[in-house]
Amino acid sequence: MAIADMNHFTVLSSDLERSKEFYINILGLKEGYRPPLAMPGAWLYAAGDQSILHIMAGRPMPVQAAGVIDHMAFTASDLQAVVDTLKQHNIDYELHRMKELEIWQLFCHDPDGAKVELDFSADEPEPRQ
């Protein structure tokens, strides 16, 4: 067996509409086809026909987290626009310039606490704070 690519992440949501607001209106993913499943949720896409993030709702949040995944990371662009949007929605973030990797790393959390990393080209100018 050889792994060829990452298929998708699934996040649990205590409020589907609030989670969709974050991932769609703040991070810029698009809602797309989702088969008719028993649980409410959404499948989100960046581009193309492969969903990259599934949101599952309609059941209580687990008391104990399953697994040990620390965060999910996305390649992104337009650092200033993302910073402006996060500020507009009062979403805290941390921004680090990783010169040796030639990227900016921005970390924030979704409405249910999942850590999200957005990676931007180091060529992007430092955003106005």
Strand order of the largest sheet: 1-4-3-2
The helix-strand sequence is EHEEEEHEEE
N-to-C terminal Cα separation, in Å?
47 Å
Mean pLDDT, rounded to whole units? Answer: 90
Unreliable stretches, pLDDT < 50, 5 or more residues?
none
How much beta, percentage-wise? 25-35%
Helix content: 10-25%
Cα radius of gyration in angstroms: 16 Å
Total domains: 1
CATH architecture annotation name: Roll
Pfam family, one: Glyoxalase
InterPro entries: Glyas_Bleomycin-R_OHBP_Dase, Glyas_Fos-R_dOase_dom, VOC_core
Protein name: Glyoxalase
Domain VOC: 5-121
Give a verbal description of the structure.
This is Glyoxalase. InterPro entries: Glyas_Bleomycin-R_OHBP_Dase, Glyas_Fos-R_dOase_dom, VOC_core. Pfam families: Glyoxalase (PF00903). Residues 5-121 form the VOC domain. Helix content is 16%, strand content 32%. The protein contains two helices and eight strands, in the order E-H-E-E-E-E-H-E-E-E. The chain has helices at residues 16-26, 79-88; strands spanning 9-12, 30-32, 41-45, 51-56, 72-75, 94-98, 103-109, 115-121. Strands 1-4-3-2 form a four-stranded mixed beta sheet, with helices on one face. Strands 5-8-7-6 form a four-stranded mixed beta sheet, with no helix packed on it. Strand 3 (41-45) and strand 4 form a beta hairpin.
Question: Could you give the topology of this structure?
Answer:
Elements: E1 9-12, H1 16-26, E2 30-32, E3 41-45, E4 51-56, E5 72-75, H2 79-88, E6 94-98, E7 103-109, E8 115-121
Parallel strand pairs: 1-4, 5-8
Antiparallel strand pairs: 2-3, 3-4, 6-7, 7-8
